[in-house]
Amino acid sequence: IEGLSDKDQLEKFVAWGNKIESYDFSKMTKLKSINLIGSPVKEIKGLSAAGSNLTTLDLGSTQISSLDVTQNTELQKLNLSYVKGITTLDLSNNTRLTELTTNNSGIRELKLGSKNGLKNINVSGSKLSSLDISEAGTIENIAVGLQTDATGTNQQIKVTMTQLQKDYFDSKGIIFTENIIANNSDKNRPNSNVKVIIKQ
């Protein structure tokens, strides 16, 4: 954005519902939070400038096709729901992540890595065929089912987890079913068409 003085001091950037298609954050080194939900943005550059300062990134329902958050090591909250353009996402450097939302997105490959603090994950309704959450510790809320392939056909997702995680989900009444639950009001539907694999 041209003409914005003192942009290097900006900590919070909110610009949802406008018509800007490209943002360059390379001079905004103190940014902690970015919210572009529902905007027609197609390109985001310079996130590495904020480095470990950036903790919240809300990009749901945008038109972006790539995202690099490898330098944003303190990122805690990431929202990419309904973002159809991104197909791969590497979050292995973002070890502080507590909340991940990529439901109804185009993501086919997701690298989580070690995430001891991850509490909430919703990747349901995307394009994933497998997901490994075994290094994510105690996840309190999870939705991983209802995946489709590139043609829109239902596909089962294989989710790798530890026995400890599975026991925790069982204790919380979080049920994974290998078949598709058609009933929209069924609370287990977001975790249907899921094959659980216990990591040995």
Topology (SSEs and partners):
Layout: E1 12-14, E2 22-24, E3 33-35, E4 43-45, E5 56-58, E6 77-79, E7 88-90, E8 99-101, E9 109-111, E10 120-122, E11 130-132, E12 141-143, E13 157-161, H1 163-171, E14 194-198
Parallel strand pairs: 1-3, 2-4, 3-5, 5-6, 6-8, 7-9, 8-10, 10-12, 11-13, 13-14
Written description of the protein model:
With 200 residues, the protein is mainly beta. Helices cover 4% and strands 23% of the residues. The protein contains one helix and 14 strands, in the order E-E-E-E-E-E-E-E-E-E-E-E-E-H-E. It has one helix at residues 163-171, and strands at 12-14, 22-24, 33-35, 43-45, 56-58, 77-79, 88-90, 99-101, 109-111, 120-122, 130-132, 141-143, 157-161, 194-198. The chain has a seven-stranded parallel sheet with strand order 1-3-5-6-8-10-12, with no helix packed on it. A three-stranded parallel sheet has the order 11-13-14. A two-stranded parallel sheet has the order 2-4. It starts with 11 loop residues before the first strand and ends with a strand.
Number of helices: 1
General form: globular
- Cα separation of the termini: 51 Å
Level of helix content? under 10%
pLDDT averaged residue by residue: 93
Tally of DSSP β-strands = 14
Sheet with the most strands, sense and barrel status: 7 strands, parallel
Tell me the β content.
15-25%
Q: Determine Rg (CA atoms, Å).
A: 18 Å
Low-confidence stretches: none
Order of strands, main sheet, comes to 1-3-5-6-8-10-12
- The H/E string reads EEEEEEEEEEEEEHE
Tell me the structural class: mainly beta
